[in-house]
Amino acid sequence: xxxxxxxxxxxxxxxxxxxxxxxxxxxxxxxxxxxxxxxxxxxxxxxxxxxxxxxxxxxxxxxxxxxxxxxxxxxxxxxxxxxxxxxxxxxxxxxxxxxxxxxxxxxxxxxxxxxxxxxxxxxxxxxxxxxxxxxxxxxxxxxxxxxxxxxxxxxxxxxxxxxxxxxxxxxxxxxxxxxxxxxxxxxxxxxxxxxxxxxxxxxxxxxxxxxxxxxxxxxxxxxxxxxxxxxxxxxxxxxxxxxxxxxxxxxxxxxxxxxxxxxxxxxxxxxxxxxxxxxxxxxxx
Length: 285
What we know:
Layout (H helix, E strand, L loop, with lengths): L3 H4 L4 E5 L9 H9 L4 E5 L17 H15 L6 E6 L4 H9 L3 H20 L5 E5 L7 H21 L2 E5 L7 H9 L7 E6 L7 E5 L2 H10 L4 E3 L17 H11 L3 H16 L10
Parallel strand pairs: 1-2, 2-3, 3-4, 4-5, 5-6, 6-7, 7-8
Helix pairs in contact: 4-5, 5-6
């Protein structure tokens, strides 16, 4: 077991999922902690993955409550803290349109209603950020337009609640258009976070997948970034994405490679600037 004090830094995984009913749940949190992990941003799983087929905005609450509950339990295990990130997965639009017969407009209306409910959790202090985005795969123009309407609504809510917005989008090195949409709505573009970011990104703050070559590129440039695994906690896909021990391991690797400033950037300064959280003050010791 590696105590975070051995690393000399907080260690934050910026985006992962926890499923207490069907996945590893708190066992994954224990793995993260054993390697030196201290803080987590836990994103709710897609509603349909939890067996919730929403028809109204209020029905998203069942998804959000499960995430809030497991975060409370994770907080009892971590030397730091976990925070919920709540919202509507952009892939829901395809499920609604292709499988349930919704028009793109009606699908967008329902997804915006879900985001309204998520923003209520932020307003109450029960979540730290929102999640939205647009499909990362090809869709009809009408679905793309509807998805962008949902995304822009999320940015408006982020501005209203003064909170960050995590985005699930297509792979891209240039999302300056979305950053511009945020700025138009009064949300600092640096508080828009591109989940599953790669080696380079213009526009939002990148939440970089914990691959060595990508982390090295950001560390060398000295730009603002976060680190994530996108651990999906799905027993049917055990090798998908990255495991919960990856961020602590990559943090040790960065330190051994002399990137102390990049580690502080990713685990202390950027979380403070983007989410308004203090990963130092929230450590037990």
